[in-house]
Specification:
single chain; 393 residues; mainly alpha; Growth Hormone, Chain: A
């Protein structure tokens, strides 16, 4: 593929991830509004359970569709998955009861989980072979970019309109991205003719791949638990720490802005230190940033700086885990491996909203929530450290 066409296609892949980022992370931005919804009487534990619904769907989508994409091609599953979560995101705006919202988020999550391993595998096959880390950083930056757009949109919309408008905005934006992708997104060169010879799923557990196949999902689980837990609860935690809603939303915006800017800075280190080592360093930085927040710095500027560090570290670790997975497996097993890593890792994303809700319902306070996510970030760094000892560092 010519350079211009290649990078144009990668840009479309990035737009797909941005659309997913908004539709996924918007829940955290409107959570304080949901807790005040008349007639719903949501507790924080209930809200955490609803927040977990999308991640449960993502687990199913990632495990199933990644494998199908390796067998039948990338483009059809990118378009189908994007259309699927767009429909159910719009449906969320029509939810008449908490269980409606939970079901719609679950179904939307299937599409969100399905699209990510496929679009990442496609981008890996479109990109120059020596630019995986940079390309994946660009694509995965779409998740915090979407989350930042959700927070900024919330600052404008939520003071004057119902939370349902936030879902409608995300749905309309996703429709636009779907149209662009339908018109301009190519399939991987490997799937334009005869698809690569299929490789059995059991090859994931062959002796040369077994360590990676086991440790990548564990590291991803811990970092997804950290990242989505903070995205779900940060606005509420800051509100509990006596920040007004507008200020609390600012912390969520800084978290995603830090992820967006910091991930590029950390990705630049990969050429010198290796992808897995920088992933471990990134996870450790996230843990240190959360520790700083637990210590309650008196300065708001310092607090915001720590939040930005958390965003950069946690999200960079997720980017670089996925980039390393894509480089560690052959084409005919690539989306399967990414789907396996993301699918099992989604258990962390499923637990994280509920974990925060359980801790708050037990009246242990926002500091304990932050402490729990500090532990998960450090565990993620440990698993990545073990991976960095192996080949493909």
């Amino acid at each position: 593929m010519r350079g211009v066409g290649r990078w144009s296609a990668i840009t479309i892949c990035a737009l797909v991830v941005i659309a997913e980022g908004y539709d996924l992370i918007v829940y955290g931005a409107l959570l304080p509004s949901l807790l005040r919804e008349p007639g719903w009487e949501l507790t924080r534990a209930d809200a955490g359970t609803l927040g977990s619904a999308a991640y449960l769907g993502m687990l199913v989508g990632a495990l199933v569709v990644g494998r199908l994409s390796d067998l039948f091609g990338r483009r059809p599953f990118v378009l189908g998955s994007l259309a699927w979560f767009t429909v159910w995101t719009i449906a969320c705006a029509l939810a008449g009861a908490p269980w409606h919202l939970g079901v719609f988020r679950l179904l939307a999550g299937v599409g969100m989980g399905a699209v990510l391993p496929v679009v990442l595998a496609l981008a890996r096959e479109l990109a120059p072979a020596d630019r995986t880390g940079v390309v994946f950083t660009v694509l995965m930056a779409g998740l915090p970019a979407g989350g930042m757009l959700a927070s900024l949109t919330g600052l404008v919309v939520l003071p004057v309109a119902d939370w349902r408008v936030m879902f409608l905005i995300g749905g309309v934006a996703s429709v636009i991205v779907l149209i662009v992708a339908f018109l301009r997104l190519p399939d991987s060169a490997e799937y334009r003719g005869r698809a690569p010879d299929p490789i059995g799923f059991s090859v994931l557990f062959a002796p040369g791949l077994l360590l990676s196949t086991m440790l990548f999902p564990l590291a991803n689980l811990m970092m997804l638990l950290t990242w989505y837990g903070l995205n779900t609860w940060l606005t509420t935690l800051m509100h509990d720490l006596s920040h007004p809603l507008a200020s609390a939303l600012r912390f969520s915006t800084v978290l995603n802005l830090g992820a967006l800017a910091g991930s590029f800075a950390l990705a630049a280190l990969c050429l010198r230190w290796g992808t897995r080592r920088v992933a471990g360093l990134s996870a450790l930085l996230a843990g240190l940033g959360i520790l700083g927040c637990v210590l309650h710095p008196g300065s708001t500027v310092v607090f915001l700086g720590l939040i930005a560090l958390i965003g950069a570290g946690a999200h960079s670790a997720l980017n670089l885990i996925t980039a390393s997975v894509a480089d560690s497996y052959p084409v005919a097993l690539r989306a399967t491996a990414i789907g396996w890593t993301h699918g099992l890792g989604r258990a962390g994303a499923i637990v994280s909203p509920s974990l925060g809700g359980w801790i708050l319902e037990a009246e242990l306070g926002p500091t304990m929530v932050l402490g729990a996510f500090m532990v998960t970030a450090v565990l993620g760094a440990v698993f990545l450290g073990l991976l960095s000892l192996g080949p493909h560092r």
